[in-house]
Automatic annotation (TrEMBL):
Highest taxon of source: Bacteria
One Pfam family from the record: DUF3243
Annotated InterPro entries: DUF3243, Uncharacterised_YmfJ, YmfJ/YflH_sf
Protein name (Swiss-Prot/TrEMBL): DUF3243 domain-containing protein
Organism: Paenibacillus aceris
Source taxonomy: Bacteria, Bacillati, Bacillota, Bacilli, Bacillales
Amino acid sequence: MATVLKVFDKWKEFLAERVSQAGHAGMSDETISKLAFQIGEFLADKVDPENEQERVLKELWDAGDEQDKRTLARLMVKLVDKG
């Protein structure tokens, strides 16, 4: 996981794989978004940003209220689920 967090493209690839797995497992988009929000909360609280992109995401996360954070989580899912 540490390697995944150091390179943003690897993080997006990792997230895309998990979103795909969740979809194949029958999870709804809403459930996937809720999980992305929970992951975002965990990362913001427990993981120091490893690169510029993660620092920007953390700053956006920290600046937002709960609705903003949920939107950011949905956008991250959309970013990696383009295919």
